[in-house]
Write a structure and sequence with these properties.
heterodimer; A: alpha+beta; two-stranded antiparallel sheet; 9 strands; B: mainly alpha
């Protein structure tokens, strides 16, 4: 995955999104490694249109779906669905309309922090937001990372690091 | 991270206060020393590290990668 380039592509297209999941964990200081990028995106028609336009040059396809399956990621497709697991030329990218434990894009945005990544501003889910989301998801793989996330919150607070 | 913050962090990593989330994480098996390297980095550097790790994984998955 090419995280900086993906963020840049979304930023340049004016997409409203929040970086979530393992990539957000990494940006917030976790040592967790991930192979895909998860974002929560706004569901307004204009934002969906911008998202579709941003992704079209990246040749998006459905991950783990037969190549013969017809698929075109345009505004109509995104409007008709909610969550998409995509393969793109910049790597695997998951689009989520909601995040468990937090809600829809507005709630996720409220739980995010602005970070500068590759020279552009990017909203990244906070450690507290990640803890809420992982706790609500409740799968073993989510619960497994909670001790590290809680320790990071504590360490950053104690040393006064944002 | 300032030098003072770095010293504070190293103290916390090496001797987490009993009962703290840091101590619980250490007991759980989290390598707290990794915080020292990740928290010193900028968000951009962390993004680059994530991308490089993902790339390394992809390369390792390719057939005959050990012959290249």
């Amino acid at each position: 995955m090419k995280l900086e380039e993906t963020i840049r592509a979304l930023y340049d297209a004016g997409v409203e999104f929040v970086l979530i999941g393992g990539a957000a964990m990494g940006i917030q200081g976790s040592a967790y490694l991930t192979r895909d990028i998860d974002i929560c995106y706004g569901r307004t028609p204009s934002n969906i249109d911008r998202l579709a336009k941003a992704l079209q040059p990246l040749s998006p396809s459905l991950r783990n779906a037969p190549a013969s399956l017809p698929f075109k990621l345009d505004a109509a497709t995104i409007t008709a669905g909610l969550n998409f697991t995509l393969a793109t030329t910049l790597g695997d990218l998951d689009l989520l309309a909601e995040v468990s434990g937090l809600g829809t894009f507005r709630e996720v945005l409220a739980a995010s922090e602005k970070r500068e990544i590759g020279g552009v501003p990017c909203q990244v889910l906070s450690l507290e937001g990640l803890i809420k989301a992982k706790t609500a998801a409740g799968r073993p793989r989510d619960l497994y990372v909670l001790p590290e996330l809680r320790a990071l919150v504590e360490a950053k607070k104690k040393i006064g690091l944002q | 991270m300032t030098a003072e913050q770095e010293k504070l962090l190293l103290d916390l990593i090496n001797d987490p206060p009993p009962g703290s989330d840091l101590a619980k994480a250490k007991e759980f098996g989290v390598d707290l020393t990794l915080f020292h390297s990740t928290l010193r980095c900028t968000p951009t550097e962390r993004a680059q590290a994530l991308s490089q790790a993902a790339e390394l994984f992809e390369v390792s998955k390719r057939p005959n990668h050990d012959k290249q």
